[in-house]
Specification:
Elements: H1 2-23, E1 26-27, H2 30-37, E2 43-48, H3 53-73, E3 76-81, H4 86-89, E4 96-101, E5 104-107, H5 114-123, E6 130-132, H6 137-141, E7 152-157, H7 162-178, E8 183-188, H8 194-199, E9 207-212, E10 215-219, H9 226-234, E11 244-245, H10 252-266, H11 268-305
Parallel strand pairs: 1-3, 2-3, 6-8, 7-8
Antiparallel strand pairs: 2-4, 4-5, 7-9, 9-10, 10-11
Protein name: Thioredoxin domain-containing protein
Organism: Glossina pallidipes (Tsetse fly)
Keywords: Membrane, Transmembrane, Transmembrane helix
């Protein structure tokens, strides 16, 4: 009987061990992680670190729902422990849960509740934030005409700004929380959105503006956490009792000449060359006119002598 009891005990322990093993999240290194998030599949990454109680709490939650996440949104769930990659996507560091949708990151922001995590990721399988440019900014936002398409919260970034790169997942998190109330966008202020950045007097990266009913509310705080950005969009903007009016959209001709003049002014050497060229051209015109007058005078004199 004792032998049979031991056999049952061992079988029970083996079953428990297998169940625990199946619940564990696959751990990957940074090389594998890069390959995963740059691929075509959706990936959910749990970033953890040593001696982190909160990391253990979130990991337990994710372990319990990883199969549901796979079935619901078809995402691969992995863990990156002590990864340097977390610095790129979450300024607040570990623990961090990020949903990569074909490379576009969405940071989970909220309580560590299983149903809330599943619901948030299931409802945001496509990016929330729209990429705007000079070509479509006014058409989509209708900012100058009173924003008939609704309120817009716009993030101006630049590719040379490392901190801006870390905010893309945060910005998607803010958009996921408020997408039913307002629109979210981002604009590359140094490439596709140069004119739009000048229009709204954007001079650095990152900068955030809230467009509402023909007015511009500027987010001036340096706290770029989801909580603070959400608070500003919900109530914080009201503290600006005298917001700016949305500046009019400059027409394409004015933009062209303004751009050419600015480029010419910024390039002293080009300005000097242009000035010399103009002087030479003027001198040539004077010489040609003088020679023409002399030739005409000779022709008239020769005609009279005949």
């Amino acid at each position: 009987m004792i032998a049979i009891s031991k056999i049952y005990t061992n079988c029970f322990l083996i079953v428990i061990g297998l169940l625990c093993a199946s619940a564990l999240i696959e751990q990957v290194d940074d090389t594998d992680l890069v390959n995963l998030i740059t691929g075509k599949e959706s990936v959910i990454v749990l970033f953890t670190k040593d001696k982190c109680v909160e990391c253990d709490e979130l990991q337990l939650v994710v372990e319990n729902i990883q199969n549901e996440l796979k079935e619901t949104i078809g995402a691969i769930v992995v863990k990156a422990h002590n990864s340097h990659m977390v610095n790129i996507y979450d300024p607040s560091r570990e623990p961090s849960l990020i949903y990569f949708r074909r490379g576009m990151p969405l940071l989970y922001y909220g309580d560590y509740k299983e149903d809330e995590i599943v619901q948030l990721f299931a409802e945001n399988q496509e990016p929330i934030v729209k990429e705007l440019s000079d070509e479509n900014f006014e058409h989509l936002t209708q900012a100058a005409t009173g924003a008939t398409t609704g309120d817009w919260f716009v993030f101006f970034y630049s590719t040379d700004c490392v901190f801006c790169l870390r905010l893309h997942a945060v910005w998607e998190a803010v958009g996921a929380r408020l997408k039913r109330r307002l629109n979210f966008a981002r604009v590359d202020r140094l490439v596709a959105g140069i004119s739009t950045a000048k229009r709204f007097h954007i001079v650095e990266s990152p900068e955030f503006i809230f467009l509402r009913q023909g007015h511009v509310f500027r987010y001036t705080a340096k706290d770029y956490t989801p909580a603070k950005l959400i608070e500003f969009a919900e109530t914080g903007y009201r503290k600006q009792t005298h917001p700016e009016s949305v500046p009019p959209e400059a027409n394409s001709i004015n933009n062209f000449f303004a751009g050419q003049l600015q480029a010419l002014t910024n390039n002293l050497q080009l300005l000097m060359i242009a000035s010399v060229t103009i002087c030479i051209f003027a001198a040539i015109v004077v010489v040609v006119k003088t020679l023409a007058k002399k030739k005409l005078a000779k022709v008239k004199k020769a005609a009279k002598s005949k």
